[in-house]
Specification:
By secondary structure, this protein is of the alpha+beta class. It contains 11 helices and 11 strands. The protein has 3 domains: 171 residues; 70 residues, Orthogonal Bundle (Helix Hairpins); 150 residues, Histidine kinase-like ATPase, C-terminal domain (Heat Shock Protein 90, 2-Layer Sandwich). 56% of the residues lie in helices and 15% in strands. The strands form 3 sheets. Strands 6-8-9-11-10 form a 5-stranded mixed beta sheet, with helices on one face.
Length: 439
């Protein structure tokens, strides 16, 4: 099956969006990597500057204690412990100086992130390490920045001033929050625009399909009365057939009926055009809705009887008067009654009820027709939409009636509700707000 043009466009837009998202993510990744590289360079340069200052200063990093065996008691052990304690104090003082220097140098370079420092030997073992930083020892050894300090005589005496920035990736990301937020917003806008455009294309395709169905339906429905009128006209031109008064009366009534049908079809199309152009104007006046319903039912009685159907009414509203446009509201009632006839099967039955509910007038049109499946209930008021009934021509219509009904009700500040079960009929209820005075 060949994909539709809309499907191809949607796929194309999806591919384009994927490409744009890939470019955006690539740009973000490059931005983060560039910021990380800049940070590395800033820290390394700052440490070199600190190393130079330390070399020119009187700050001393005493050599680490010898790893050999040490006496455990006696004067020698006491002397060694004193030497180690003094070395530890000197290292702590030297570390404090180095940390202060690094803070100043980093701030001068625009870097103001918290760091932890330590002294490690050439193998990553701690020479000086704060107790609270013990859990960071492995990270300091693997991810820390370092410079040699002191004056080592052997490889074992090498001391590395090591600096580690905890969670630096998150810190750098927070430092770029403006750029990342702007990029995220751009991505969201791109996705929303693509989804909106894709939905618009799908709706346009559905509308084109519905318009195609409308044209097919219209062609079929217009051809039938035109053809009937043509045949009746030819029959009237036949002297033998027109000589019979009964035949003459029959064909004249046929032409009149089909002409009226044509007028209704054209009126429906004109109504749709009025809705599209926003030209639905209302001329409000007090209307007794009971009288309006009775008038429509009286005019439609002949059509109901032709199908062997019947109508009944329970108009019990104590206040049936509203303010509205009589012409448009008459069309609303006509459409609902006409639907009940068309979809009522072999013996359509229609019950019209009315009652007052607080500050509103409610009029319900209850039929015994084929009903509306649940999945179609939300679409029955859409323009050009027709509930599938098997054969597209078995029920006449353009799918314009209920959309017109809803538009008229909305213009009146009123509502229309529908409750239906497939195979058991439908109930359309008009709800008109009422004021205390309708005069």
């Amino acid at each position: 099956m060949r994909p539709s043009r809309t499907t191809i466009l949607v796929l194309g837009m999806g591919t384009l969006l994927s490409g744009l998202l890939a470019l955006q993510f690539g740009w973000v990744r490059a931005l983060v990597e560039a910021r990380g590289d800049l940070f590395d360079e800033q820290v390394r340069t700052a440490l070199v500057e600190v190393q130079s200052v330390l070399e020119l200063s009187t700050t001393e990093f005493p050599p680490p204690p010898s790893p050999g065996l040490s006496p455990t008691s006696g004067p020698a052990a006491d002397s060694l412990a004193a030497v180690r304690a003094e070395g530890a104090l000197q290292r702590e003082s030297a570390m404090s100086v180095a940390d202060s220097l690094l803070i100043v140098v980093l701030q001068r370079r625009g870097v103001d992130f918290k760091f932890r420092s330590s002294l490690l030997d050439n193998y990553g073992r701690p020479i000086f390490l704060q107790d609270e930083d013990v859990y960071l020892l492995e990270s300091m050894h693997s991810d820390g920045y370092r410079i040699p300090v002191g004056e080592p005589q052997t490889l074992e005496e090498v001391q590395l001033y090591t600096v580690y920035f905890p969670r630096i990736s998150l810190v750098l990301a927070g430092d770029m929050k403006v750029e990342l937020t702007a990029n995220l917003l751009l991505l969201v806008v791109l996705v929303m625009f693509t989804v909106y455009a894709a939905n618009g294309l799908r709706k346009a395709e559905q509308l084109n399909k519905l318009k195609g169905d409308l044209i097919n339906n219209m062609t079929h429905e217009l051809k039938t009365p035109i053809s009937t009128i043509g045949l009746a006209g030819e029959a009237l031109l036949d002297e033998e057939m027109s000589a019979d008064p009964e035949n003459l009366r029959y064909y004249v009534q046929l032409i009149r009926s089909e002409n009226k049908r044509l007028g209704l079809l054209v009126e429906n199309v004109l109504r749709a055009a009025m809705l599209d152009q926003g030209e639905l104007e209302l001329y409000r006046q007090p209307i007794n809705f009971h009288d309006l319903v009775k008038e429509v039912l009286r005019n439609q009685a002949i059509h109901i009887k032709k199908q062997g159907g019947s109508t009944s009414s329970q108009l019990k509203a104590e206040n049936p008067v509203i303010k509205g446009d009589k012409t448009h509201l008459t069309n609303v009632v006509f459409n609902l009654v006409d639907n009940a006839i068309k979809y009522g099967g072999d013996t359509p039955q229609l019950l019209v009820r009315s009652w007052n509910d607080g500050t509103s007038l409610r009029i319900a049109f209850v039929d015994n027709g084929i009903g509306i499946p649940r999945e179609h209930l939300g679409k029955v008021f859409d323009k050009l939409y027709r509930v599938p009934t098997g054969n597209v021509h078995n029920v006449k219509g353009f799918g314009l009636g209920l959309s017109y009904v809803q538009a008229v009700m909305q213009q009146h500040g009123a509502e229309i509700d529908v409750v239906s079960t497939a195979g058991k009929g439908s109930t359309f209820t008009l709800v008109f707000p009422q004021t205390h005075s309708t005069s």
